[in-house]
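quick one
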Amino acid sequence: MHAATAYAHPNIALVKYWGKSNDDLNVPATPSLALTLGDLRTTTRIEAAASEVVVVDGHQVRDAKIERWLERLRGAFNLPPLRIESSSDFPANSGLASSASGFAALTLAISSAFDLDLSLQEQCEWARFGSGSAARSLHGGFVALESEGDVCRASQILDENEWNLAIAVAITSDSVKSTGSTAGMTASRETSPFYDGWLRATIEAFDLGLVAVKNKDFDALAKIAEASCRQMHALMLSTEPALIYWNAATLNCIDAVTRMRKDGINVFYTIDAGSHVKAVCEADVVTRVSEQLSRVDGVHSVIGSGIGGPAQIKDSSSPGKVSDD
Ligand code: DP6
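structure w/ DP6:
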């Protein structure tokens, strides 16, 4: 065993995942399609310790999701108690996919520290047990996640250099989301009258989204991604009790992005389980889009990002996977 550090980028879903077919194995009920945010990252360091300690963004925490995940991992591998230190350079638990980058970095760091010799597909599966969306953060660029029975496969559709898009993330709140994704998904499945329709629409959107990404068809992707976003939030709104993640600034940003597109700027919006708005655009207009979003009422700040690469090992003691940028 050697200490190891890995980092991974969060990803944003263009065709959303909201609902599981198997809660215990954390299997998404529908396929999803996402892109990786290169300028945001979670870095995780692993070392053996006398007793287990988990430190997230400088605070020691007890995290039920991480504990369950480690228990499952220990069912397959003999691991000592660990010191896990993880930090993100962006706001956590607010709909910016910190659990996706977190479980991706954690899986890669543990796999390297203990020489578990996991293939990329196996890493994706372990990351997915922690958080469905985390399987997508091990790859860079545009990534699809599909399941067959209880087995999932994350695959790269385009790498980070194949389509020159960028993302402006409008931060619209400094609070943590009220309901986490896992609990929210269960509530939607159990209470929303629209759940079955959502699954059907998402399966269709995924097929169309794949074609749009492969063809680098911005207009088609804009339509599919905005519709998937609005359909997911409609499902959330129809859940009992209602899951309302948007705030006034979220709506203002949707309006601003819609107006920009009418003015001929290639940009579309998407929003995950939080109030922040991600505006996906062609890279040459990201400064303009960011400036316009930063002037929107209620927007605290805007983070610009290019498309990111795969999760990486930072620890130079792990030969063959060295990368530190
Ligand atoms: C709205 O992957 O966080 O971001 O598997 O329960 O951990 P769990 O959920 P998670 O959910 C992501 C939900 C989403 C949409 C998406 O990323 O596809």
